[in-house]
Specification:
This protein has two domains: 132 residues, Thrombin, subunit H (Beta Barrel); 145 residues, tm1086 (SG structure) fold, CATH 2.102.30.10. The strands form four sheets. The protein has a six-stranded antiparallel barrel. Strands 10, 13, 14, 15, 16 and 17 form a six-stranded mixed beta sheet that branches. With 299 residues, the protein is mostly beta strands. 10% of the residues lie in helices and 31% in strands.
């Protein structure tokens, strides 16, 4: 049975941005072992990386799949860009409204903090026609979502129309949520302590490569839903025994200490057992919506 929601009371509001220009210092960074690196970073149209691709193994840092969008690159922490991030929810429709790709639609995947960008999956045909000047209109829908029978579950950044396809179910004393992996709370790094639940993300730390492999976290893909154990994201990102937070992987692995694949917060409860993660390899937004590497059932 589907959990009851207040979806019929939510507002749908337009927000508009454009492709985020890639930014880079051109200087070396230093990884968690003290080794220098100089690789591509964030922003732009990433032609050869899509939802469903591995989040690990790229010669890049904080890699964003498909298209990175922003409303105001000069004032990324201002109200206009904040609104663009806040209203754009995972699963929302995004439409290109200018240029040769005009009319093509994509799907919002999540938010990337720091750069304050929205990650959107578009088809390769649309991406080939896009430019950095193209405008993207998003029908923002999802903020304010509640599971009405479980007021102790917080929901952020989630389009309610994907709940059924995702396979979220009411188990009588809470909800069951399919996830691709269970993430120990001890691994959460950059972004812990933030109260920006309606935008941004936080990272799974991956400096301990052996431990990451033992847990199978190195098999994560862009768009995977994950459960972060013993983490409470109701009013800020913090450790709390028994809490569970559900999120989605929106950027790739990182070389910096304290960083790794980024996760946008979607659902969280501090009540033990209220959220029951069900591990499934199919728990990926691309799989449930047929987008990215899963388009046409190809992955």
């Amino acid at each position: 049975m589907l959990p009851k929601t207040n979806a019929d009371r939510l507002v749908m509001l337009s927000v508009q941005g454009q492709v985020a220009a890639p930014e880079h210092s051109g200087r070396h960074g230093f990884d968690a072992e003290g080794m220098p690196f100089l690789v591509p970073g964030t922003g732009g149209i990433t032609y050869n990386v899509h939802i469903g691709d591995p989040a690990f193994g790229w010669e890049a840092d904080h890699l964003e799949p498909s298209v990175s969008a922003i409303a105001d690159q000069k004032d990324r922490n201002g109200g206009i860009n904040g609104g663009f991030n806040f209203y754009a929810c995972t699963g929302n429709e995004a439409k290109i409204i200018t240029g040769d790709a005009k009319g093509a639609t994509g799907v919002v995947i999540g938010h990337h903090g720091g750069g304050e960008r929205v990650i959107i999956e578009f088809d390769e045909d649309a991406m080939e026609k896009m430019t950095l000047d193209d405008k993207i209109l998003i029908k923002g829908y999802g903020q304010g979502l509640k599971f009405v029978d479980y007021p102790d579950i917080a929901v952020y950044n989630l389009d309610p129309r994907i709940i059924e396809k995702w396979g979220i179910r009411d188990k009588g004393d809470g909800i069951q949520v399919p996830v691709a992996a269970l993430i120990p709370g001890e691994l959460m790094g950059s972004g812990v302590g933030s109260t920006a639940m309606g935008r941004s993300d936080y990272d799974i730390m991956t400096a301990d490569k052996k431990y990451i492999r033992e847990l199978g976290i190195d098999k994560l893909r862009f768009g995977d839903f994950v459960a972060i154990l013993n983490h409470d994201n109701r009013f800020g990102r913090s450790y709390r025994r028994g809490a569970v937070t559900i999120g989605i992987v929106i950027h790739g692995d990182c070389k910096w200490a304290g960083h790794g694949p980024g996760v946008t917060t979607l659902i969280s409860s501090a009540t033990p057992g209220r959220i029951e993660p069900i591990v499934s390899r199919d728990a990926n937004i691309g799989k449930i919506l047929g987008i990215g590497r899963f388009k046409g059932g190809s992955a």
